[in-house]
Amino acid sequence: MATINAVILKHQMKRDGTWNVKVCVNHRSTPRYIETNNFVSKEMLDSKGKLKKAYIDKFLAKQLTEYRDRISLLGKKVDFMTSSDLRTYLLSSDNSNKQIDILENFNARVVTLHAAGRYSSAKCVEVVCGHLKNFSKMEKISAILVNSSFLMEFESYLLNNIKLSPGSVRTYMAVFSKEFNLLRKNYNNPAIESFPIPFNPFDYYTPIKKSVPKRRNLDLQRIISISRFKSESYPEQLTVDIFMLSFFLCGMNPKDIYVYLTNPEKSGFLQYSRSKIKARRKDGGVTNVKIPEEAQVLIEKYAGVIQKRYSSLVIFHKTFYRSWKKINEALGFKCTMYYARHSFANIARAVCKFSKDDVSFALNHKYGSDITDVYIEPDWSVVHKVQMGVTEEFRKGVIE
Asked: Which positions make up the signal peptide (predicted)?
């Protein structure tokens, strides 16, 4: 049976000769303690060194009664709980009326994502947090104030005031939903019936309709034009060369190029885990690409160099953003790093006539059955076949 009492721990006397009063939660002969804001001197203790009843009745009786009542409400659940569980339950009850600030938590999340190297995700959460702050004109936003009306007004603000595209609004609202539900998961504890964020407003929110995505495909002739682009500006030449390296390596992301291609002598094949999906996939997002001659030249030129020249991925990515504007003006058509991966896939399917399944495998998209994959080793030759098919088409176009 669980018992609740007010106590002091004699060995924890402060330098000023006082003790902090604690609530002792004793269950199954195991005590756990909850600190209070009360401090007592020796005058408040009886001859046995325990708190005097008069002091308890005057300052702690109400709190002790509330704790006992809350434990009584658990009924037989107490039999399956430890003293630590009960302590957590009581503390959660104390915090049930505490306002949870989503801006504070979102900012903390940004720091966590940065520490994990998830810079793109951190940037998205940071942007959403900034928009929420500007929209609400508040320094703090309580989670329980976020309802379906709040979400609809915020969506309208992004569309009409910030002038974001429907696609961008969908993205930011999806980030908002994900982070809000993460808050609910962190703060709510169904095991002890603690729900400081009981309501999920996104259950009653309908996302804005998804617009048809713009194609990011370039034909072979334009890919060749990019490969022939020369600039005296190092950032611009780097941007074009990393684009082509991505194209030759099945649309390898610049982040993965920065992380995995550090050895200029790397040749033959490259096996790596795609950073974008490795945390979400059971197989760790592992893929294996062949290194053709065209890619080998670029690896020798940049592997180990870009890591020294650009101290972080954030700076590395900013270089591309600035450079593409000038490169596009010179080329006469729009292109970004995304186009390398999209164009590779389109050429593999439309020009080389590889099956969608083979192209999907080359791009390291999820396909097939999880159960079957347990039995079958990945056949990387399929990836290499698609890859070299696209590379050969590129070589033909260069000769012509």
From this structure: none
| Pair 179, 109: CB distance under 8 Å | yes
Q: Where are the domains of the chain?
A: 3-94, 102-204, 220-399
178, 182, 183, 189: CA torsion to nearest 10:
140
d(CA 320, CA 243): 10
User: Which pLDDT does position 375 carry in this prediction?
Assistant: 67
Whether residue 224 contacts residue 214, with contact meaning beta carbons closer than 8 Å, is answered with: no
The architecture that CATH gives domain 220-399 is: Orthogonal Bundle (1.10)
Residue 66 to residues 54, 73, 91, 94, 182, Cα–Cα distance (Å): 18, 11, 12, 10, 30
> For residue range 25-82, what is the model confidence (pLDDT) as tens digits?
999 889 999 999 999 999 999 989 999 999 999 999 999 998 998 888 888 888 888 8
Are the beta carbons of 211 and 167 closer than 8 angstroms? yes
Q: Are 40 and 59 in contact (CB under 8 A)?
A: no
DSSP symbols for 123-140: HHHHHHHHHHHHHHT-S-
Tell me how far apart the alpha carbons of residues 292 and 297 are, in angstroms, rounded to a whole number.
9
For residue 107, give Cα distances in angstroms to 22, 133, 134, 233, 261.
Answer: 33, 11, 15, 37, 32
Tokens representing 120? 């793109």
Residue carrying the six token digits 């106590």 = 7
0.85 exceeded by pTM: no
Q: Which of 74, 68, 140 is nearest to 104 (CA)?
A: 140
Tell me phi and psi for residue 257, to 5 degrees: -60, -45
Beta strands in the chain (DSSP E): 3-7, 19-27, 30-40, 269-273, 286-290
CB 266 within 8 A of CB 257: no
Half-sphere CA count of 65, side-chain side, radius 13 A: 7
